[in-house]
TrEMBL record:
Pathway: Amino-acid biosynthesis; L-histidine biosynthesis; L-histidine from 5-phospho-alpha-D-ribose 1-diphosphate: step 2/9. The keyword RNA-binding does not apply. InterPro entries: HisE (IPR008179), PRib-ATP_PPHydrolase-like (IPR021130). Pfam families: PRA-PH. Residues 1-31 are annotated as: Disordered. It catalyses: 1-(5-phospho-beta-D-ribosyl)-ATP + H2O = 1-(5-phospho-beta-D-ribosyl)-5'-AMP + diphosphate + H(+). This is Phosphoribosyl-ATP pyrophosphatase. SUPFAM superfamilies: all-alpha NTP pyrophosphatases. Transmembrane segments: none annotated. CDD domains: NTP-PPase_HisIE_like. It comes from Acidocella aquatica.
Amino acid sequence: MAKKIAKSTAAVPKKKQVSRASTVTMPPPLDAPDARVLDRLWATVLSRKDASPSESHSARLLARGTAKIAQKFGEEAVECVIEAVAGHKPSLIAESADVLYHLLVLWVDAGLRPEHIWAELSRREGLSGIAEKAARKPLAMEGLPTKKIP
Ligand SMILES: N=c1c2ncn([C@@H]3O[C@H](COP(=O)(O)OP(=O)(O)OP(=O)(O)O)[C@@H](O)[C@H]3O)c2ncn1[C@@H]1O[C@H](COP(=O)(O)O)[C@@H](O)[C@H]1O
């Protein structure tokens, strides 16, 4: 496998090899924000459960209930899709942040902690999506009729 990679990178012009290596292997700066911001934001949103809707956007959303929160999350996701397809990276960053914030509000509303989702992601680590799909039981095995409707 290592041989194969060495062979394929040898075909890449030298200039490209350097820039690719620098984006893939350069560690982020030590003081760079990282994904722990999600845990902190979740705790902030949770703390807003009993706050005044006039002072906190999270409190306002939580007070409006699950359907509204889910609707807002869906709207933000669609905006994210639009920016991704348009290829607007700065807007995609902003919309991605909106999606994550609204997803955290959904988790708080549902009584979920980030650890529940981190655990599920960890469980899937190293499991190929292709292999997982191939291992799924056919619907007929789960009690559904096997005969086609004529
Ligand atoms: N990350 C966010 C964040 N992202 C987006 N938004 C708000 O989400 C709102 C989206 O506006 P929209 O017009 O789309 O939605 P809307 O006001 O519900 O309007 P309708 O669709 O209902 O008409 C704006 O008010 C944004 O400011 C956020 N509000 C808060 N946070 C974080 O949550 C923390 C707590 O915020 P509060 O709960 O407001 O104290 C903040 O410190 C931030 O870290």
